[in-house]
Amino acid sequence: MTNPTTPDRRHTPRLPMRGDASLMTTRNKWPAHVLDVSLNGALVALIEPYQLDNHEEAILTLDLPGGERIKLQGRVVHQKEHYIGLECSPVSIEYHARLKQLLSELDSARQDDRSLQQMLSEMDD
Questions:
Q1: What's the CATH code of the domain at 36?
Q2: Which of 2, 31, 46, 93 has its CA 20 to 30 A from that of 60?
Q3: Spatial distance between the Cα atoms of 25 and 59, rounded to a whole number of angstroms
Q4: With contact defined as beta carbons under 8 Å apart, do 39 and 12 qualify?
Q5: What is the pLDDT of residue 108?
Q6: Which positions of the chain have pLDDT values less than 70?
Q7: Rounded distance, CA 26 to CA 74, Å?
Q8: Residues 6+ positions from 73 with CB-CB distance below 8 Å
Q9: Roughly how many angstroms between the first and final C-alpha of the chain, as a whole number?
């Protein structure tokens, strides 16, 4: 979803994540699917029809395995079709610590996938 002609202004890396979430504003609440996440934002897909304004404040709740949740508060920064980009941060110190842990787990899994792909490609040679 990055435009190649627009420089990426993110200060923290975003990591792929697939999971359920909910996005809530003062007007409504929608089920969402998380596509990627960072310490300062997330990209989600809304499946149901929605109406959001850019810069509208929102709360994103990430649903983790085992019923655990992480709440992020922020604002809508971009929309394209059913994709919503959010600039947000955890609402508490506990959520911040858990998000950092989650990002570390996602990064480790991504590195493991890369190592496996490299091993498989070497086997093909």
A1: 2.40.10.220
A2: 2
A3: 7
A4: yes
A5: 87
A6: 1-12, 112-125
A7: 13
A8: 57, 58, 59, 60, 88, 89, 90, 91
A9: 33
Does residue 7 belong to any structural domain of this protein? no
Question: Does 61 reside within a domain?
Answer: yes
**Residues near 124 by Cβ (< 8 Å), separated by ≥ 6?**
none
pLDDT of residue 13: 77
pLDDT at 5: 45
Which tokens is 111 given? Answer: 């590195």
Q: Which domain holds residue 24?
A: 15-124
Residue 3 counted as domain residue:
no
Say how many C-beta atoms besides its own lie within 10 A of residue 106's C-beta.
17
**What's the structural domain count of the chain?**
1
Structure tokens of 4?
């190649």
115 belongs to a structural domain: yes
| pLDDT, position 109 | 76
User: 16 is written with which tokens?
Assistant: 């792929």
